[in-house]
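re: ur question from earlier - yeah i can do the single chain one, its not a big deal. heres the input i used so u can compare w yours
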Amino acid sequence: MKRRRGAYLNRFAALSVATCMAFSGCAHRTNRGPAAAQTPAYPPISPESVQILNRRPPVAYDELGKVTVQTESAQPRARSMEEVREVAAHAGANAAVLLDERTFRQRNSVTRRSMDMRRLVALLIRRKDVATPPLENPNQLPPAPSPSPSPRSERGGPPPPAPQGAPPGATGT
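and the output i got, formated as tokens:
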């Protein structure tokens, strides 16, 4: 009798984990960048103004970090590119250089199913030859898509807004 009860508990635990994984989604993003002190801070920009490049440009630029976007390959490639643009816009990058794109099969050890996945790795850069105006209202952007801190500041976000009546360029710190 005890053995049968243990088998039910194991099945219940496996089913619970599988359900949690199904509801959590299959997209995964990481954002790696240099230390905040080494990276110049740029204000967020519109995702539509971020260029996707296939190679590094021959002009001067600042590297803001790397981003990895991993999704199911059944999802359109354009959606993966849009995720790269969103992360780049939050970091203040006006271009993203695709470093690697792979499609591979990944096996879920809990559900024992294989899924075809797509992984994009991009270098976020701020080109110095392109004038990119900052957003007039940084609140126009949705919340930061990556759970890791942004490479732009130690707090992980844009600087606080300037108090009313403060000179241009002042921040609320």
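The CA atoms of residues 2 and 8 lie 10 Å apart. not sure if urs matches, ping me
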